[in-house]
Specification:
The complex is a heterodimer. Chain A is mainly alpha-helical. In chain A, 63% of the residues lie in helices and 10% in strands. A 5-stranded parallel β-sheet of chain B has the order 1-2-3-4-5. Chain B is globular, with a radius of gyration of 23 Å. The N and C termini of chain B lie far apart (72 Å). Classes of the chains: A mainly alpha, B mainly alpha.
Chain lengths: 115, 289
């Protein structure tokens, strides 16, 4: 598997994945509230270190999701180190995730037949 | 290295100036980068490589700026006299930090307060008609009795804000966090409250005419004994939302989640009734007028 990954055009596959950043983040928040670094770390881990979500891409997505009412945030109560901003999915966000996941499943099925 | 990361973040955003919403993002980004750097070092990466990998993970900060309302730094221009008939421009206070400020009764017509930090400020009885408060931090702000007609408050955090008796006609408050907000006795004629989160918000005796709640989360809210005319609930979430004893006239529930909404003793017109019935809402206790 590792050899195949090296062969894939990194730029191209990252553009494809980037289009799904909002949905990927919503999915992570469905399992519980998270702060920024946790999100990028989990995406790296869950993809077997094959995809690194850039901080800037993540924040533009978080801002957009917040603006659309899909997530809300609150400050954590850490006693040491910097304060962490935690993100929580709203029911609007859960509905968007379900729609996006459904659309993806459909697109995947069509592409599998066409490519 | 922490200082070096701080300098790196400062430098990356230097072109955009300094305002509260940006300061928050920078602080959050920096704390992520510091945690990543320390993780890498703890895993045995040498400091120089860890630093390089950390700053490589930032990406293009202009992506973030596309999503944050900000004034593009512009060259100074000579002020031109205002044409008669044009709306008088208000105060420009965009990006300012005025948390906890006493602005009760202030005249702030058409003001620019975009991206400002105004937590716990007092705007009671103030005239903010036509003002721009988009992307601001407005948690716990007191807008009681304020004139907010035509004001723009989209993308703001308004947790626990109070709008008691305020005039919000034709204001836009899309995509905002309105959890625990109070709209009692407020005039919400033509107000856009779209894509917003309303957990624990109250609307007692509010004027609800042509109000737009599309794509909002209205779970557990209470509209009992209210009159709703021409209100839009398009694609909104209405789980356990109560309309007991309410009067609904030309209210749109298109694609809304109405299955668990409560319509006991609700009076409504034929069209509204037909739409709700078709969407499998429980309409057993409804009176059609």
């Amino acid at each position: 598997m590792a050899y195949v990954v090296v062969m894939i055009d990194q730029k191209m596959s990252s553009d494809l994945l980037r289009g799904h950043t909002d949905t990927i983040i919503l999915k992570l928040l469905m399992d519980g509230d998270k702060y920024g670094y946790q999100i990028t770390k989990l995406i790296a881990e869950n993809s077997g270190q094959t995809y690194e979500l850039k901080e800037a891409t993540m924040y533009s997505s978080l801002k957009r999701l917040e603006h659309d009412g899909c997530i809300i945030w609150y400050w954590g109560d850490e006693t040491k180190g910097g304060r962490r901003k935690y993100y929580r999915i709203t029911s609007v966000g859960e509905a968007l995730y379900t729609t996006n996941k459904h659309n993806w499943d459909h697109a995947k099925q069509v592409l599998d037949q066409l490519l | 290295m922490d200082k070096q990361l701080e300098n790196y973040v400062d430098e990356a955003f230097r072109a955009y100036g300094d305002f509260p919403a940006l300061r928050d993002v920078k602080q959050e980004l920096l704390s992520n980068l510091q945690e990543k750097f320390h993780d890498l070092v703890a895993q045995g990466t040498d400091e120089q490589t860890a630093y390089q990998q950390t700053i490589d993970s930032v990406g293009d900060v202009s992506e973030i700026m596309n999503e944050i309302p900000h004034d593009v730094p512009a060259p100074a221009v000579v002020a031109t006299p205002t044409e008669p008939g044009e709306p008088k421009p208000g105060r420009n206070l965009a990006g300012s930090d005025m948390r906890g400020a006493d602005l009760a009764g202030a005249a702030l017509v058409n003001s620019k307060l975009k991206g400002s930090a105004l937590m716990e400020s007092d705007f009671s009885g103030a005239d903010l008609s036509g003002s721009d408060l988009r992307g601001s931090s407005l948690e716990g702000v007191n807008f009681d009795g304020a004139n907010l007609s035509g004001a723009r408050l989209s993308g703001s955090s308004l947790k626990g804000a109070s709008f008691k008796g305020s005039d919000l006609t034709n204001a836009t408050i899309g995509g905002s966090d309105l959890t625990g907000a109070c709209f009692d006795d407020a005039d919400l004629t033509g107000t856009k409250l779209t894509s917003a989160a309303f957990k624990g918000a109250s609307f007692d005796s509010a004027v609800l005419t042509d109000t737009d709640f599309s794509r909002s989360d209205l779970t557990d809210l209470n509209f009992d004994n209210q009159t709703l005319t021409g209100v839009f609930f398009t694609s909104s979430s209405l789980k356990n939302t109560s309309f007991k004893g309410a009067k609904l006239i030309d209210v749109s529930f298109r694609r809304a989640a109405v299955k668990h909404a409560i319509f006991d003793g609700t009076t409504m017109d034929k069209v509204t009734f037909a739409e709700l019935k078709g969407a499998k809402a429980n309409v057993d206790g409804v009176t059609v007028s």
